[in-house]
Write a structure and sequence with these properties.
The chain is of the alpha+beta class and 282 residues long. The chain is built from 10 helices and 10 strands. It folds into 3 domains: 88 residues, no CATH class; 83 residues, no CATH class; 83 residues.
Length: 282
Amino acid sequence: MTQQPSILRVALRLAAAGLPVLPLRAGKTPVGNCPSCKGSSCGDRPNMLAGGPCRCPAPCHGWAAATTDRHTLTSPPWTAAWRQAEAVAYHPGGADLTVVDLDNPAAIAWAHEALPATRTVPTTRGEHWIYQGTMRSANSVRPGVDIKSLMQYARWLGPGTGTTTALPDTVRALVVKEPRTVRASPQAVTVPSLAGGGQCPHRTPAYLDRGITMAEQRITAARAAIHTTVYRTFLAVLSTHGRCGCLTEAHIARLFTAAQAKGESPRHCTDAWANALARAGL
């Protein structure tokens, strides 16, 4: 029990520095903050990703519940969660960060050859390389390499050494390689719903660009209810363009940039995108 106050102090210090934090129990799994999620009974799926068994009135654990709010972190039910915690985790995407998780010496050697130097943190089996900027998270993007950023959490293992540098295109490319291959396959370009044998209109660059531009304009023109406007705009884009694989990280970044220019935080953008994905069934 003497360890728990220390864990909470670390969490509060990180939150004050702008890192959205959450408690982890043994096994690197999030601690549920409500009775429905006790002991992973909900499958450890925050209700921000609707469709899972969790029916909490608000996201109670996992990356979607990570917060920088001191009052939340030190009030029930979080106080009980910290008593169960074995470690602190944080949501990299909520702090505009991306963690390249290198699980073995071979992966570390690859990073030294392929990636620009940045802040590094030793882990149990390898290293975390931390960059400024967000992207889609993905596991096993290459042998021994995971990406933790949006809609993901990473364990806090210390401040590390070195200076955090900008997220390079080399890391972004690790996530987009597979979708590009899938889109190029015959199955990916088959669109049975189009009558007369036409092609998917979303694959016309001008059509998609016009849709993203209109979405940016809708967010920019909002006078009130900004968060609601952002969510509805994200949902409209995903409903139109989300199923054929034509959306890229660059398109999503344009939408997030427009939202943040209206005052949305990176975390609120991430939450709105997650909600829109779930509502669109993606």
